[in-house]
Amino acid sequence: MSTILYGDSVAKNIKQQLKEEIAMLMEQGKRIPHLVVLLVGNHPASVSYIRGKQKACQEIGMRSTLITLEEETTQEEVLAQIQALNHDEDVDGLLVQLPLPAHIDEKIVFEAIDPQKDVDGFHPYNMGRCMMGNTSIIPCTPKGVMKLLDTINYEDLSGKYAVVIGRSEIVGKPVGQLLLKRHATVTICHSKTKALKEIVKQADIVVVAVGKAKMITADWIKEGAVVIDVGINRHEEYGLCGDVDFESVLEKASYITPVPKGVGVMTVAMLLENTMECYKQRRG
Length: 284
Ligand code: NDP
Description:
3-stranded parallel sheet; 2 domains; globular; 6-stranded parallel sheet; Rossmann fold; alpha/beta; about 280 residues; 11 strands
């Protein structure tokens, strides 16, 4: 039987620390960190994620502003808005909510954000630094995954075999790099991987970021493995669930994250942490 790795208790501690830092800044009469979220269109999941991020900012006393642009906004207009925010001295962190409408190239958008305000850590400069082991601005979800692993005294990943399923720029690839930096032996799998189940069955640590409801069942998991479920799926039959079949894998894994209350809450906490980091970096 597994221990359930709840992200919400870890996230709560992180938020409390940030709240105290912000209270101190206020006491000293200093400007407080300011996060701006840019939403293009009104994708229902994005609206709900943004609400969560704004609520979290409010909880710790961090300023947050939401700028909403019409779905039809051109890429040039989005880039112009980003430039204006890059030059706004009052803005510390800038996040462009994904997914973007199909006519906008997200890679161009990521590159337009000032790396010093890039709280998501998706700018190639910050991604490159993350790959080279710099730990200042790391993409929020991968950073949250690593913090969750820290809570189980798994700091020494040396020699552990980690399998990451999913190779996206925002989750799979950076998670793989962070695990590698901690001396795990890493395999990153994707939709073209052959004998996927056989690979996963050998893993000491499995990180799943695929976007397929309950794809990973107990028969994929080695007895005692640590299972981190990044997936967030809204399934007709199962409702809100991860990529891992939680109930069956619970019997097999040593540790497992739930969905919700697992990685998702850590992502939001890491966003707050990155905003504070950008604020500090900009103030020198
Ligand atoms: P992407 O769609 O960008 O990437 C999915 C990855 O899964 C791809 O690399 C794809 O392979 C791979 N894949 C798809 N099907 C299979 C399969 N049958 N077998 C093996 N690999 C497969 O998704 P994201 O990385 O953005 O997100 C993944 C999940 O995590 C989603 O559910 C998303 O909602 C969730 N998420 C959760 C966050 C959180 O805070 N908890 C934050 C971000 C995402 P290929 O590259 O070959 O197409």
